[in-house]
Write a structure and sequence with these properties.
elongated, alpha+beta, ten-stranded antiparallel β-barrel, 2 domains, 343 residues, Lipocalin, 19% helix
Length: 343
């Protein structure tokens, strides 16, 4: 047992214990610092191991995933009047569809733009084609950008060296979106004015659109290389839904007409059905909108509208959360349900 002497001097046993503790503390401190240093070196080396080209290709895959699908500006068009948007700056309704195709150069898409007809009424004018082209996405390691090459007026990718792109857009990742910009003179074969004034684009997981360059004075038709122009357009990505409708019909077996497997989407998509048999051949429509309020306290909602042929206003509607995956309505004489498709 350690004996403590009653003197003014520190006991020898205490000095030994202090020395041991000091050694342990120093060893632990050095070990900790060394471990931290090694950890920091590994972290730095790992960070440098992620090459810029790898990051660019990762972003390319993400952009290709966001790029595909159907986009529509039905919400922008619907609220233009209530927002008092000047007539010259108002956008026409536009639907953009990008279908993935095969390409050795990178992700390629068969692109179509069309002006949708009045889907809120049966027998309305059909969709009007607005343009078609092929877009190819590729990583440019030198410039550090994702390049979109557009071949206008084509429904198939040209062969290697067959044709130069009619338009080139440079895209850069910025947080949770991509920002694109045309270069001066890069799209003169599409819209001459755009060749002189760069047009900016944006793409996210849920939206796509253009933003007019601030210094442009070329008029509304010079606003974009793939849209109607104005002050810029915003298209929201459509989610596909599968719906069914039951119509009360005394002439039908069981008193109901059942219409399953109706495909539409939540960006103004509409489908129409009619009673079968008997003298009543009235048509009824379903229309889905993911309503995004640009003002006020109203909450965004996924809305299912019921339309009767020949009537501008909806007969009735139901709503749920904008992220909803299922919505239904029961008006006794008509029942309908729509469920998000996973394709």
């Amino acid at each position: 047992m350690l004996q403590i002497e009653k003197t003014g001097h520190r006991p020898r046993g205490r000095r030994v214990l202090a020395g041991v503790l000091k050694s342990v503390l120093l060893t632990g401190l050095v070990s900790g610092l060394t471990s931290g240093l090694v950890f920091d070196l590994i972290t730095v080396q790992s960070a440098h191991a992620v090459d810029g080209g790898d990051v660019l290709r990762r972003d390319l895959r993400l952009m290709a995933d966001w790029f595909a699908g159907s986009f529509d500006n039905v919400e922008q068009v619907y609220f233009q009047g209530e927002l008092d948007t000047p007539a010259a700056a108002r956008e026409r309704r536009l639907r953009r569809v990008a279908a993935l195709t095969e390409s050795d150069s990178g992700p390629a898409f068969s692109m179509t733009h069309r002006y949708p007809g009045d889907h809120a009424s049966a027998g309305s004018d059909p969709d009007t084609p607005a343009g078609a082209w092929v877009s190819v996405l590729r990583a440019d390691d030198t410039a550090g950008v994702i390049v979109e090459d557009r071949f206008i007026g084509r429904d198939a990718l040209p062969g290697t060296g067959e044709a130069a792109p009619d338009c080139t857009i440079h895209w850069r990742r910025l947080h949770d979106q991509f920002l694109g910009e045309t270069r001066a003179g890069a799209c003169t074969s599409v819209t001459p004015a755009v060749g002189g004034t760069p047009t900016r684009f944006f793409l996210s997981a849920t939206a796509y659109g253009s933003v007019m360059a601030a210094d442009t004075d070329s008029g509304p038709e010079a606003g974009s290389v793939d849209g109607p122009g104005g002050s810029g357009y915003r298209l929201l990505k459509a989610r596909p839904f599968s719906c069914w409708v039951s119509l009360a019909n005394e002439a039908a077996e069981g008193g109901w007409d059942f219409h399953p497997g109706l495909k539409t989407d939540d960006q103004g998509g509409a489908v129409w059905v009619a009673k079968t048999g008997g003298a009543d051949t009235s048509k009824y429509g379903l229309r889905l909108r993911n309503v995004r309020w640009p003002y006020g306290r109203n909450r965004d909602s996924l809305v299912l509208y019921i339309h009767r042929e020949g009537e501008a206003r909806a007969v009735s509607y139901a709503w749920t959360e904008p992220e909803g995956t299922r919505i239904a309505v029961n008006l006794r004489w008509i029942q309908a349900s729509c469920t998000l498709r996973q394709d």
